[in-house]
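Quick one - inputs below.
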Amino acid sequence: ETGVTQSPTHLIKTRGQQVTLRCSSQSGHNTVSWYQQALGQGPQFIFQYYREEENGRGNFPPRFSGLQFPNYSSELNVNALELDDSALYLCASSFTMGQGNNEQFFGPGTRLTVL
Amino acid sequence: AQTVTQSQPEMSVQEAETVTLSCTYDTSESNYYLFWYKQPPSRQMILVIRQEAYKQQNATENRFSVNFQKAAKSFSLKISDSQLGDTAMYFCAFMKRGGADGLTFGKGTHLIIQP
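Output:
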């Protein structure tokens, strides 16, 4: 069974640039959630994708957007990067069927630094 | 909206001792799940234990057990016979049934196991 993978591991961008982070879900999972974890804080929910559509969203501006592909992998795109976007970005996959338990399994994260 | 509070920023115990991490939450939901996640320095978020709110019996996983007090909205984690490998950040998390709103995390407790 393949776990959740994320790429790249680290990334350095400058303010105003755009970035794309990638996530491959665990085998058998059909749902991907993205989280932002600032230094010393707990992760914050950005959004969730199910059946290639945004299924839920946290309190993040529209410049945070995403995609989910037919193979259930996902991308997180951030436009017009700001210094405060510097964080660890975590992807988590789960299996959704009706209102069943959606236990989430996390990837190792992508560390984004905005200069 | 849900909130999760972890009031202990850091705890330190000797190897083999028992330690309890505190977590309280606030919600108007009746169907939900509670989790404890461990995040070692490697950054990978690992599920430690899960509790369904409709179950009165406290969850246990080997050395890890919870004290779930639904009326008090309290969800503490007890680690017995603590080991050096238990050193990590521990996050308490809440999820509504269905999971489309993602996980709501506390700020975490840094647990240090001393040899």
